[in-house]
Every structure is written in C-alpha cells, then in structure tokens.
Design goal:
The complex is a heterodimer of chains A (about 475) and B (about 290). With about 475 residues, chain A is α+β, with helices and mostly antiparallel strands. Chain A contains 15 helices and 15 strands. Chain B contains 13 helices and 3 strands; from the N terminus they run βββααααααααααααα. In chain B, strand 1 and strand 2 form a beta hairpin. Classes of the chains: A alpha+beta (about 475), B mainly alpha (about 290).
Chain lengths: ~475, ~290
Amino acid sequence: MVAETHGPGNPMPTRRQAMGGVPASAHGTFRSIKTATTTLLLGLYFIAPWLRFARGPDAPDQAILVDIPGRRFYLFGLEYWPADLPLLLGVMIFAAASLFCVTSLFGRVWCGFTCPQTVWTDLFFEIDRRIDRLLGRKSGAATYLKPIIYSLVAFATAFTFTGLFFDITRLAPAAVAGVAPPAAYAAMAVLSFTTYVFAAHVREGICLHMCPWPRFQAAFLDTESLVVTYHRWRGEPRDRARVPLRLDLASVDLREHYGASPGQPDRLRGDCVDCSRCVNVCPTKIDIRDGLQMGCIGCGLCIDACNTVMKRIGRPEGLVRLGPEASADMPHLGPPPRRYLRGRPLYFGAVALAAGSSVAYGLATRSTLEVSIEPQRQPPFVTLADGSIRNDYNFRVAHLGKARGELVFAIPGQKEAMVRIAGANGAHDGISWGNHRSISGKILVTFPRALAPRGRVPVTILMTEREANKPLATIQSYIWGPEERP
Amino acid sequence: MSDEGRLDPLTGQHTTGHDWDGIEELHTPLPRWWVLTLVLSVAVALVYAWLYPSLPTTFAASAGALGWTSRQQLADEIEAARLSQADWRGEISKRSVSEIERAEDIRVFAITGGRSLFNQNCAGCHGVGGGGQQGQFPSLVDDDWLWGGSVDTIYQTISHGIRNEHDESRQSEMPAFGDGGLSPEDVEAVATYVLTLSDSGLEESRKALPGAPIYETNCSPCHGAAGEGSRDFGAPRLADKIWLYGSTKDAIKRQVTQPRMGMMPAWSRRLGDESVKMLAVYVHSLGGGE
C-alpha cells in the first residue's frame, strides 16, 4: 500500500502547510454528515447534564447523574445500584461488539464521525478556520484570540463532564464558594488541561500515535468492508489537466478532440490531476492515494474534495470513494457490494445481540429491593423477665422507584414466635416507608420459654407489604435459644 | 595522562582525557535531567527538614518551622469533626431526651452517635450489644430495669451514675444480713422462699414456707411483698426469671449474706450532656426500652 507513482516534478507546496496544519474545508455529502454528527453529539454532551427529571424528595432531580457518594447512577427513570454493575459489563460488551460489527461493514465510521477526539478536533479545526477567515491567518489578534477560545471550550467541556457527577445547577456556585468536593476541582482542572492539549495541540496526533484502535482495526476488516479507496486504475499516472487523458478513460468525443492535434502526445494522464485537495482537507494529513493506511480515519472528506475537483474538470465523480479495498486496482469492483450477511459482521452482530438482550433481560427482571437482615450476635438472645427468649435482628431495606406501603415481617412455620419492629415509641407490628427510600431498624422475635429453639436453628424471615399482602422478600437467617430446657 | 579531552572521531564523542596505556575513556556524563532530579530532591529534602520535625535530638526531634505535630493535627481534625456536627449537637442540647425521640432525624443522629459512644465507653462492662455480663453487669437489652427503663430514667442513670461520689448519684445499699441480722438457718429459709417468688404457680403454697415471715420482715420493704422490686432503691425484682448474680440457692444465700451491688460512674462529667443524651436514646432503642 505504498504510492507507486507520483506526479512529475516537485510536489506543489500544499495550502495545508501554509495554514499551519489546519485542514482546508471540504464541501459535499461527507462534510454534511460530519457537521451534522459533530453538532448533534456536542449538543447532546453539553445539554445532557442540564436535563431534569423529577424523582421525589429523597433523590436528585438531575436526569443523568452519577452519584458517587450515594453510590447510585441515575438515567432518567432508571436507577442503578452497585449490585447492577454486571449490567455495565454487558453494556460494554454490547458496545464493543457493535463497534466491531459496524467497522467490519463500513470501515472506521466510529473514528471518522463519532469518536470524541474526532468530534472535538473537528470543532477546534472549525474554530481555527473561522478565526483565520475573520482576522486573517497571520494577524496578531488571531494568535491571541485562539487560545482564549480554546480555553473557554476546554473549560466548558470539563465543567459539563464534572456536572455529570455533581448536580450541575449547583456546581458553579459551589465551586466559586469553595465548597465543592475536591474531586470536582481536580476533575475540572485535569479535563480542562487534557481537552486543551488534546484538541488544540495534539489533535490528529492522538489518532496517529496514541490510540490503540487504528492498530487493530485491520483485524475487523474483510475484503468487502467499505473503506475510503483511491481508484488507482483510474487516477494514474497523475499529471496536470493540460496533458491529454489516457485513451481508455476518455470518451469517444475526447479522443476525436485529441486526435485533431498532430501526432500521438508523448505522455498521457489518468483522472488524478495531482491538485492535493485530498491531502489538504484530510484531518490526519495523510495522502489517501497511498492506499488504505493506519492514519485514515474514514471520514470521507477527501471524497468530497476530490468530487468537487472532478466536477470542475468535467470528469465523473468517484475517483476517491467508499468501496472495498481491492477496487483500487480492479475496475469491475466499482459499485460497492451490498452483501451485508458476511462472516465477521454476522459474528460480531450475534455477540452484540446476545449481550444486548442479556442486559435487557437483566434490567427487566432485576430486583428493585435491597434487603439485609443481620442477627444481633451480642448477645445472641435475650432472656426476658417472664422467661421468654427474644432474638434481635438489624434490618435495612431500600427500594427503587415508586413509594411503597407498610412493611411487616413474619416467620412462617413458627406460629409461637411474636415478631415486632422496634420503633421510636415502643414496638410495632409494621413499619412505614413514609417519604424515605431506605429504612432501617430492629426486628424483635420473641418465643415463650418452653417453645424457644434450642441452640442455633435456621429460620426464614418473610417480608410482606401489608396492604397488598404481597411477599416482597424471604431472608435466610438463624434464631438462637438456650441449650437446655428450664 | 593528559587533562584535555579530545574528540573521538569514531564515536563522535569527547574523551575524558584519561589515558591508560593508550586506552581512553569516553566522556559520558549523567543525563542532565537525572542530575537535576537529584539536585531537586535534595533541595526538597532540605526544605522539608526545615519545615517539619525531622532532625533527632536527644529526647525529641527538632520542632520544624511550621510547628506541625501529629498530635495537633489529630486535635484539629477532631475539632473540625465537632464543628461539622455543631448544628446537630445544638439541636440535641436544646431538647429533652424524650423530645429527641420524637424528632425522627435527630433520633437517628442520636442513635448513630450513641452507638459509637456506647462502644467506646459502655461496652467494656455492658458488652458491645448491651447484653451485659452474667454475675457482673446488667443487660440493657432485656425488659428488666433496676432503676427504670424509660428514656428519661436511663438518661438520669447514665448522667449521674450509680453508687458513686457524685452528689446526685443513685444511692442505696443492701444490708449484709449475714453480719448478725439473720442466722444461717434464716438465710437458708429466706433463700428457699425467694426462689419460689418467680413461679406464679406457687403463690398459695409459698405462704406456708418458714421463710415467708422472715422475708416479710427483712426484705419486703425494698423488694416488695410479692418480690416486685423497687426502682427507687434499685432493688431488683425477685419475681422474674432474670437473676444477675445467679439463680441457684447458693447464689441467693451469698447475695443475702454478702450482697454485691453494681456501681457506675457519672458520665455527664466525662462526656458532657449532649453525649449522655445520645447514649440514653441509643440504650433506650436497644430493645428493652419502656
């Protein structure tokens, strides 16, 4: 995949070098798609933490929030507990398999359109281009204005991200007053710094030198994957537009036109006029005419640039296009294949489907209650004045979602056991949730002395909702009594 | 040996100028960053040694320019923790213990703080869960209370203690009936009688026992005619199944002749009123509270 031929003479100094590394803007289908995805993703990112979602008095009202001290993750109506972490694993497998599946079908669309590095770099390129257009590329004002705008965007990015972990409506006042958590300051500082460095300075260097994904993406491509391909069979040899076109490419009319001049021209050219537009617009500064390479992020901007030129010189579009890699040298592979049911996409699609449906199943059937009942071991049991034996249990119950009714506990199969819940003013039959999402307290289980268990006996405690008379949970525990009968 | 180095054409490096029988040494200094790091580390160490206690003297270390000590840091952290709880403690000091129990949030705070205080100060005798220790210290989780099991009486007991030198401490003393008060035969008889008190089935028959009149004369003023006890004197109820100092006849005889009585410090002086209130609410929540 190395360039076989280059245009004669020294290559023209590219406009890209003059612009200090900022690619020229392209116009066309791919640029439109890229602008749309960049706008959409940046919009989602900056709006997401500001969305509100009413959850009642005990929970935050931010729609998307990772509550680290409370160990909760809120996503609109859904709420995740640490016990739901396996779901995250499923989501990650799903995301990875989907990425592999899409890559094997369409090449690096992730890199080209949706990767955060791409999105922010695209934004910063556009900032550069606008400022250059407004103030002139070499003006002093531009050199001062750019870092200011970079810093603002970098800080907004860091602030928004931090706002996913700390109510964003309170973040600014808290940060100014100095009462925000230290981690919030650290996150804002580190992310401002990395955004500034990565998006304003390193830019495509991340893709070329740091990111592991380009290194192994080739493993997901097959011969039919769509990649940005320069049709060498059509483009070579490159030469200026004034040189006559290769006869096999030209139409009959053109041949007559050339034929009018006396004698055979000493050199003929392909469709590529070596204008360097494809290099000038490339965000990673590669020459796509060298073939598929690690630096290509598959954004298709060179396709837009080349099509513009082809239209201008009256040649058919598609000298650079999306197609299977082999089409570079084989004209008959011209139209991109439409065979989606191939080995790799099917395999990765199946993995994604399995992971996705597992997550959906897990989410649909997960428990919305967190119950723990611990026997009090010091002492294991209490002898009361009338000789009866009491066992105490500390319980803690938390629920997810809507408020619930009153809770009662019972021990099925032990009719002589009296089960009460210790409260602020004496013991009760049940305990009410009130406004709370989690309640804790003490369960007192009393046996008459004569019927008390001897030693340690396993027991099942049943938790029920009183009004609905619906069993909510059964908990295995132990009950203790004196070893010998009175 | 010459002192001047020369440029070695083969490697493009300078030599040190050292020459041993024609063998020369290339000048390969330590990397500059390495040397700078070393110098910087030494500088940081010197500054650190000046700021913090670090130089050992005979009995202590140099004080350090910042005057930092780990003891002071701990004190500062404790003070900061106290300050962060100041609002809650203020709420507690304004309220009586029974008012605290009625205010849900404050009750939760009091119980949480009370648990920690209990484990530090009380668990040594009464056990981590308040289970007490048979023969030594009463259980706090059962429904039998020597001095009363309402939150107010618990508060008073913890605050002033039992049988100590505090002015408002709970005071009472059971006479040692072995010292001339009762003959060994009388002690034997009264112990037999006392053991029947906790058995309601023997209510009629026990009146005929020889110990009945002895109990009536000597014990009932404090322990009650039916052995119901008296919380004014901390006299235990004898008509129940809870025997702190043992339920055998020997144990009861020992208690009649040489009585043991528990004592407890006055905690308000040591912990302060707010902490005692939190302790009272916690103990009241242990399961036996009245």
